Amino acid sequence: MRLSILDPANFRFLSVGDSCAHYGEYTSGGGFGASETNQQIFNLKKSPNAPQAQLHWKLRAVAYWGEVILTSAGLNLDVCATDVTFVPIPCSKPVGHPEHDDRMLQVMRYVAQRKAGIDVRPLLAQSAARDAQHQGNRLDPEGLAATLQLDRTYLQVPLRPYVIVVDDVITRGASFAAAKSILSGLPGVQAVHGMFLAKTVHAPLEWPDLDIDDAL
User: Fold this and answer.
1) Phi, psi (rounded to 5 degrees) for 192
2) Is the pTM above the cut of 0.85?
3) Alpha-carbon span 89 to 158, nearest angstrom
4) DSSP state at residue 214
5) Residue 41, class by beta-carbon neighbours within 10 Å (0-12 exposed, 13-18 middle, 19+ buried)?
6) How would you write 31-77 as a 3-class SS string?
7) From the CB of residue 84, how many other CB atoms can be counted at a distance below 10 Å?
8) In terms of Cα–Cα distance, which of 31, 46, 75 is closest to 197?
9) Residue 135 clears pLDDT 60, i.e. is over it
10) Which pLDDT score is estimated for 130?
11) Burial state string for 87-112 with b = 16 or more CB within 10 A and e = fewer than 16
12) Over the chain, what is the mean pLDDT?
């Protein structure tokens, strides 16, 4: 798996000049059996309230995606260790909520524990519970930004010049656009980039077999 550049034109809320990249492809509606990426995304998203047997697979997924970031081509970890601050996108529930899931923070802390110098900061926090984007009630970037708050305790040490926002799946780019709008103006930040474990793709339509005589 390789970190590949995304074309902003393919995502509704990305702007020309946005620098975002992804690793795998998540097939929308394909279920966990559609691909290894689908399975590992499903496992990563398991609720923190799931039975212990299922949480075993969630922890395995954290390690899986951490190793993808550590070993895949396309991301210079030596440069990241000196010039980049990674900011995980928070889940749709605030800290303290029974369904709060810090899965992206877990993935990036896995990376930081194995690569010296990696700077991971949960700068963004959910201020109130909302529906998850994939559950259908999708907010636009302005709506998402209104639900986020900046934890300034993580600004006591200056941010590095490049911030990489990290999320699991990009579908329209709303979460990245919301995060970028908050992080871009912080002291010392020269650019905000996006890194995603997967991008959403859609399975091709399967047309029914037609009798050519009936079709004419």
Assistant:
1) -120, 125
2) yes
3) 19
4) H
5) buried
6) CCCCCHHHHHHHHHCCCCCCCHHHHHHHHHHHHHHHHHHHHCECCCH
7) 23
8) 75
9) no
10) 82
11) bbbbbbbbeeeeebbebbbbbbbbbb
12) 93
How crowded is residue 62: how many other Cβ atoms within 10 Å of its Cβ?
21
Kindly compute the dihedral angle of the four CA atoms of residues 61, 80, 4, 102, in this order, to the nearest 10 degrees.
Answer: 30
Q: Is 85 helix (H, G, I), strand (E, B) or coil?
A: strand
Residue type, position 132, single letter = A
Residues in the chain: 216
**Least confident interval from 47-51, 96-100, 208-212:** 208-212
Q: How many CB atoms are located within 10 Å of the residue 166 CB?
A: 23
d(CA 11, CA 174): 9
Per-residue model confidence as pLDDT tens digits over 26-83: 999 999 899 999 999 999 999 999 999 999 999 999 999 999 999 999 999 999 999 9
Which pair of structure tokens corresponds to residue 12? Answer: 């509704």
Gap between the Cα atoms of 115 and 174, Å rounded: 30
Written as one string, the DSSP assignment of 115-164 is STT-EE---EEESS----GGGS----HHHHHHHEEE-GGGGSSPPPSEEE
The answer to whether the beta carbons of residues 32 and 38 sit under 8 Å apart is: yes
Compute the distance between CA of residue 66 and CA of residue 107 in angstroms, rounded to an integer: 5
Handedness of CA 99, 105, 111, 114 (dihedral sign): negative
